[in-house]
Structures are given as structure tokens and as C-alpha cells.
User: What shape does this take?
Amino acid sequence: MSLTGRLLTALFLLSMPLQVLGWDWQTKVTVVVQHQSLQTVCELLEKNYGIHFSYSRDLVNLSRKVTLTVHNKRLKTVLEELFAPDDIKFTRVGDLLVLLPNNRTTRTINGYVKDAATGERLPGATIWSPTLKQGTVTNQYGFFSFTTTKDTSSVVVSFVGYQPQWRQFPKGDRTIEISLESTTHLKEVVVTGAESNNLQNQTQMSKVNISSAAVNKTPRLLGDADLIRTLQAIPGVSGGMDGVSGLHVRGGSPDQNLILLDGSPIFNFSHFFGIFSLINPDVVKSTDLYKGAFPARFGGRLSSVVDITLKDGDMKNFHGDAAIGLISTKFDLEGPIIKDKTSFIVSARRSYPDLVYNSLLRLEDDEKNKAELSAYFYDINAKLNHIFSPKDRLYLSFYTGEDKMNLQLDSASLPDTARINMLSSGFDVSWGNTIGALRWNHIYGPKLFSNISLNYSSYAFSTKIGYRYIVPAANELIDQVGSYRSRMEIAGIRADFDYRPSPQHGLRFGTAVNMHDFKPSMSSFADKTGSVTPLDTIANGPQNTAAEMLLYVEDDWQLTPSLFVNAGLHASGFLVSGKLYHSLQPRLGLRYMLPQQWAFKVAYTQMNQYVHLLSNYGTSLPTDIWVPATDRVAPMSSRQIALGIAKTTNRQVYEFTLEGYYKNMHNMIELRDPIGFITPDLLRWEDQVSIGRGWSYGGEAMIARKKGKTTGWIGYTLSWSTRRFAGINGGKIFPYKYDHRHDIEVVFNQVLGKNWDFSASWRFTTGAPLTLPVASYEGIETGSPWDPVSGPGTGIDRYDSRYNYRAENSHRLDIGINWTKQKSKWSRTWNFSIINVYNHKNPFYYYVKRDDEAKQRYLSKVVILPVLPSVTYSVKF
Amino acid sequence: MKQLLFFIYTFALVFILSSCEKKVNIQIAYEGDKLVMNTFMQPDSLIYVRVTRSVPVSVYDESAFKEETAAQVSIAASDGATLPTTLQTIAGRKYFVSALPAKAGLQYQITAASAGLETVAAKDTLPPAPQAREGYAQKNSTRIKFILNDRPGLGDYYRLRVFTVESGAPQKALLFRLDPAFNNNLIDIISNGNSTSLVMDDSRFDGRELTFVLQTEAPLTQTDSLMVEVTALTRNAWSYLRTVALQQGNAGVIVSEPVRVFSNVKNGYGIVAGINTKRLIFKVD
Assistant: This one.
């Protein structure tokens, strides 16, 4: 054989196996078929690429017709797309591609539940298989992952205020979107003890969901619906002083509430000295209040979590609201930027008492100085969301809100040589929050979802005063300006994962790193006309930067058909001034199904809080200052155990919950003496506080009617809350300032007809603790009766134990009525509300009054909320 | 339209501003009569002890603080000496006056007993004299200066007062404040408040020599001489004066709990504390 012949023979022999094994998974294939069976596609692949298929016609059905157009696509990808819907798996054996039926007994459907009209994702929607009695709930981003038996073909999807929907599941693992139709105008107002599905199917306890509809239906104070005021009507939540938007949950103080706005923490949640909530309720999608049984994903506060989710913006059409009330006006607008891809929502609100003062009631002080007053609050919300793909979505949200007051006085009188003469003075004070968040939702696969977010939140208080005056006798002109600022910032990155590996497990895990920056009490002063450098220096507060890290994992686990557990662990560390605090906080919830569809639940939680609030005895003020834990003042911690029973009736008309709880709290701080509204010298704040403990325990019952023309709830709370601090009250235990023994709340909503609906709420609270003096005695001012200006010392009141009295019981009835006229493209609504209908004089605070006219001393109470009607007009399009 | 607006707002504001105050029919319980013993002891000065009786809170007339003229008052010094007392009426008021002056460096325990009431007792030391000097003020101005030398690391406490002086004798207490321009005291400029005395600790000027600049409420036009009284206080005296000021300042303030006035008197009320006063009398230029 010639050389050429030998080479050709060798090439032939070498090419034999290459021809036989001429394909692999990376082989690029091109297939174009229209309405052909899978078998035809297989034959084409065999013919064009030498891929030999082997399968049993009894086990593998290739009759389904498909239409396929792929060019130079990876073989494995093409095969996955072809066979996944029929649950056919494939493997390579030698040069054969063997097709087998998939023997899996389960499959996973995942995706989002959304509003059919707006595309708004619906958190808390239920996906339920009645035959299997299995289901799942969408997370706060509207995502669900439901792993169920292979032959489950249909489920019921439901959400409060939406028409439940039977949904056929496609074959195989799929990512789908389920759209629910809103029921007409949300006539029903719902508050639930958990998500919209039955309470007995949720291991989570001590949680209440408030819909935005519920907030908007409640009677309005000065024309403004208010989220926190609605939360105050929930058992276990106390509002503090009458008319104030305080939040005292299960005996905890306001600084122990973790309030999250789209995942970002808020430090001060009120406008107008606590009268109004920070946020325009019209842009709130839903609010979850956790009073206990905190899931492991939450941490950093002791007593409650208020998780507020804002609307995302309509993906399909433009909508808006505008409302004008007695105290404020507001609007919001939402709509698509790119239809079904990108949407926005923007809202703004401003109060205007100052406009009234300046236009109708000119201010003059005692000396006839002219005054210009500016006093208002505003808030602005903006949110963008963009869908990059069915698996990726981005949210960008922003909030800023501020309370501002400015008073400018100008003298109109001639200078008096015998005294100091003011020429002008200006006073400016403002405080507010700024919050921003960027979140990315991503679906990795049918069972794994993630949310990665960047969060920023700050709270700042600022005041500035300018003062110009002259002393004619000395020919002195003095022009002074002083300022005081306080700022608290937090910025961080957070990753949350939601993994549903099987019907028995729902895993969540994540991590976060937050940087805290504390700049309390920064002052400056300038004397514009003076040449003297101040001798003393202003003692600014301690400035600190702290790093907080956390990791968590939790599993919603079905142990037996009747026993469920939610077990979690939250680990966190806090590094401040070279000191590292760390904690492991176990969270455990158990649910056991009792006969008649009652669920027995029990939960144990530990919480840590690394920041303290310097405030006066539980009364929140804008000037309150956040400080980090230090080496002398350790972080707060708490342990809470709760147990209870819960049930939702079959047609989800009624819900019933009964819970008891016990909570202890460590390393709480309390100021020994009151600090002023502005405290420039905070360097030694640790010396001004006592460290102590607190205990809270009690029970809560709630029955709610969820459906029908009449909705509402009745709640009852029996509670005790006490504190003990070294050096306060002689070291003895005393009640918490807002320790109310009994609370009753009745909330009632009635649809009266096509255009009318009526709401009422009545609450009764037993008296709060009150400290009164037990004697009066003579004081002393000087060392010798021969001293100048010697005389009888001032009378002094002797106070013995703290909270030695109870104030009067409080009760109040508020009503509201809405008249709505629906036009073809828009609607208008008049709301009339009356707060304190029967004008009960509930105490705001008490003090011992010295009545010089009557020559008496007696206990006097100040009432700020008499009968108070209001009217609001709003339009919606 | 404006009339309608006016109507709506007036209607709302009437309700807002109609926050009312109402007498509450809660009888404030009385802890019962207690002895009240008050004295500020000064070195090289006789000790003047006031002994009175407490009254219920509802008593309006402060002259109702009944003087316990039959009380037995004894003063014991830490060197073992006992200072006898006599009851004297000075400026219409009764005092138990020691026969001998208090001495610097000693601690004094004072007890008072009266029939039907628990015997009360309290003790304190005497602080050293404050190192204040060089009082100065200009006619028609509002500023008064003096220099204070603070002892380092000892936690000193002071009270300041200002008086007009006529014929060599102090006459009238002046209202004043720390001049914000010289003391960087933001609160003073915000509150724009004046008082007849200032009580402070040395936390912001510990161990330093500094010039205090006071600002009087009115220009110094009428007076020829002034007296700045700088009083060193023991911690007991400071705690008492400070909490008295806080209680009075917080009366009726909604955000605060009432302040308990400090007392070191066992079984009763009042204060027994040491002070040491230095008076700077100077001409107004």
C-alpha cells in the first residue's frame, strides 16, 4: 500500500469513532418545525446530527405537537425546552440518547401574583390546593414557590379584596404570573390576624395585617386618615396620650418599634409632634404589625415590627388621587413609563396651618412686634419599578418628609433707653426623615427567590435662632446666631433569600451589613458684632460610627400533618468604639392543629437592640436623640413567650384569636432627671441614665368580621407592664407610663348603599399611671436670715413613689361617613368625620395647679381632643 | 370663597384651640405631718436651722408651713463638739441658731425632735471658699464679668447671684443669664430666660481659670455698685438647689415626670448642706 493509501486508511479509521460519537451536549443544532410531533423533531435530529434516540413508546409519549425555531442553539438547551413540559428526562448511554419518563412525584410552580388591572404585586396572596389541603403564601414581593404533587392540576388563588381564582397549573416546573381581579371598590374592610388565608394555616402568630382600605375607612382626625391611629385599635397596642400617634406594643416603649418603609428603618414616625403619621396612607399597599413571635429575618428592636410596603405603581394605566382636608392637602399619581415594563408612583402632602395664621389671624406679641409664622409639614414619596425579565425586577424608592416652623419677629417700637431693645429675632426649627432604597428581586429557579437591597435612612433635627438687639444707653448692637443639630443615619446592604425546597419546608435566610452614624447635639454659635472669642466651648454630643452585621435563617417546617414549626436563628454583631457586642437570638414558633380547625400556637423569641433613645419617660419628641450602646450601657435585650389559639371560619367571614404573652426586657435606660427639649451637653449621657429591666404580660382577644357589608372587629387587652431602675423610685418596681390594665376597641364599618358607607370606632382604656405629690413643705434659698434677699423659701412638693395614682378611664367614639360618586372615568368622595362624638373629656396630662384667683391648689387635667368634626374632599381617577 | 375658608378654619381652630383645662376631683392623699429641717451651713458663720411642719398639697397659703418652735435641735460637729442652739426670731421668722460658728473642714450632724413627730437628722460638710475675683461692669451696659479659678478634678459646684449695692449693702437681686456670646450657651439664647440665680457644676470648666460674663436683663443704668455672689456648694446643696429649680421649671410640663427634690433629711423633709459664699463688691465704671 502506498503511503497515500496508508494515510487515507488511517484517516478513515480515525474518523470512524468521531462519526459515531459526533455529538455532545454542546453541539449547536438548528431545528425549524411547525406543528410537528416531538417524534418528528427527534427524527430530524437523528437525521441531521446523528443523534440516535432510544425510548419505549409505552412509557414515553412523543405525540405532542410543537412549533420550534432554533438556530445554532446548544443541544441540551433545546432538549430541555422540548421535553420539560412532558416531564421527559433524557440521558446519554454510549451514542444513544435515551428518553425516560420522569419519576418525580412533585413539581414546583413559582411566580408572582398581581393585580390584573394595575400589575401591582400582591404580598400575602394565598395559593391553595383544596384537595391536598396544601398551600403557600406570596412573600412581601408577591413571589410564591409551590412545590406540590405531580398530578396537582389546579389551585385556588385568593387575596383580600380580590376575586378568588381557580387556576390551572401548566405541566412541569414553570414560572407563571397569576392576575387577580379586584372586587368592586373594595367595599369590605378587612383586618386579619395573619395573612388573608386562614389563621389556622399559619404558624406565625401575634401578627396583624392592615390593608390600606382599612386605614382609609377609619374616622379621620382633622380630615387625615392615619396608619398608626389604625394600628392603635389593635389589641396589644396602646397609643399613649390621647390623640397622639404613639405606638406602645405589649408594654414596650416607642423606641422599641422597628418601623420599616419598603425595608428601610424609620427613626421618627410622626409629624406635628406625634399627631399624624409620617406617611400618606394612600401610597401604602399593606402593613404588617408583629407584636411578638418575630420571624428571624427581623431584628434590632425589642417590641414590635411594623413592616410597611408601598405601592409599586400601575403598570398599565395612569391613576391619581387628590384630597383636600382641614389640615393638609395631598395628591398621588401613578402609571406606566413603559407599559408592563416600568412604572412610577409619586405622592406629596403638605399641611397648611401657617397659611391660615398669616392670612386670617395676624400675629402680634405683647409689645406689638410683627410676627411672620411659617409652620407646616410635608412629605414626598417616589418609587420606580422596572421589570427586566420575568425573573428580574428592580425597585427604586425615595421618601423625604419634614416638619418645619419658622417665626420671625420684627420690632415696630422706638428704642427705650432704659432697657435692651429687640430689633428682630428669628427662630427656625425643623426635623424629618430621608429614606432611599434600591432593591433587586431575582428568581434563580423555581424554588429560590432573592431580594438584594441597598438602604439608607436618616433622621435629622435642626434649630437655628438669630437675635438682634440694641442697648441704646451703651450704644451696643448685638447680633447673635446660634444653631443646634442632631442627626442619625443608617446605610446598609441586605440580601434575603426565599427557598422552598419541598412542601414541608419554607426556608428564608439572609445577611445584612449596616453602618450607623450618630451625630447628636452639634451646636454652633456666632456673635456677628463681637470681637471676643467665646471662652467656653460648646460641648457637642458624642459622635460615633458603628457597624452592625447580621445573619439569619428560618424554616417553616411541617413535622407531621398536625404539627408545624417555624424555627429560626438571628445572629448579629455591633461594633462601636472598638467594642463588639454580639448575640444569638433563637426564634421558635409551633402550631398544632386541633379538632374543628382550631390551631394552637406557641412562640418564643429573643431580640436585641443596639441603639437607645434618650427621651423623657416614654414621651416621644422630635428632639429625642439616638445613641449607640457603649461599653458602659449595653444593648437592650428581650425574651418573649406567647401562646394562643386561632381560627378562621370556613367561608372566611369571621376570625378569632386569643393570645397570652410574657416578655422581659434587659438593659433598658431611663433618664434620672428630665432633659430639656434641647440638650447640648450629651458627652456624659451615660451618667444621666439608669439601667434597668422591664416586664410585660397579659392577654389579647380579637374577633373580626372580614366579609360582607358589615365588617370590623372587637378587641380586648388585659395587660401589665412594669419597670425597675436602680436609683429611680428607690429601686422598686413601678408601672410603665402607659400601663393600661384594660383596653377595649370596637371598629365597625357598614356599607349603606351604592354611594354611602359608614365607620365608627370606640375605645375604652383604663387609667394610666400618674405621679402625684404626697405633701408640701418649706424650702430654703440662703444660708443666713441676714443674707440679702432672704425670705421664706419656695414651697416644695414632696413626691414619694413613682406612679402612686391612676388617671381616669378614657373612652371615645369616633365616626366617619363617606359619600362616593362614581363617574365613568373618575370618582369623588366626601368624608365627614367626628372625633370624640360625645365630647368626653379624656385627660391629655395632669398637673397640680396653683390657682391664684381661687386661692387653691388642686389637680387639673388638660384636654386637647374635644368633639372635633372634619371634612375631606377627594377625587380619584 | 374667602368667607367660606374663614368659616371652615375658624370652625376647626376653635376646636383645636379649645383644648381645655378642668379641675379633677381626685383627692390627693397626704402622707401625714413630717418635720422639715432646712439649713445651709457656712464656715465662720452661725448655723441657722429652720424647723417647720409639712402640709397637704392642697394647701395654698405658704404661710401655713407651721414653725415648730418647741422642737429640740442639736448640732454635733465631727470633732466631737456639740453646738447648743437657741430659738431666735429674725425678720419675723423663727430660727434655731447655733451658739458658735461652723468651722471649715468639719462635718456637722443636726437633729430635730418635736412631740408627735418622728425625729429627723441630717449631716453635711462645708466646702472651701470659691476662688473668684475681679468683678467688673460698665455703666449702661448689660455685661458683668468676674474671674473664677476652679479646682481641678474635684467636682466643684457653684451658685451665682447678682445684687445691686447701695451704701455698701446689697439691695436687690438682678435678673441675669450667662451671656451667650461669651459662654456659647445656646439654651440661653433660645430660651432668652433670666433668673436671679444660676446653679452649675464644673464639668465644662474643671480646673480652668475662666472669665464669666453675665448678662443682666436690663442695662445697668441706675446702680453705682454691684455685688456678684459666688457660692461654693457641697454636692448635697447642689443637688437640692438643682432639683428645686427643675421641679419649678417642670411644673405643668407635659413631657416630664415631676422631679423629686433632693433631701438628705432622714425621717423628714428638707436639706442640711454646706455652702461657702464669696462676695465681689465693685463699682460700676
In short: Residues 7-20, 185-196 of chain A have pLDDT under 50 and may be disordered. Chain A touches chain B through 105 residues (CB under 8 Å).
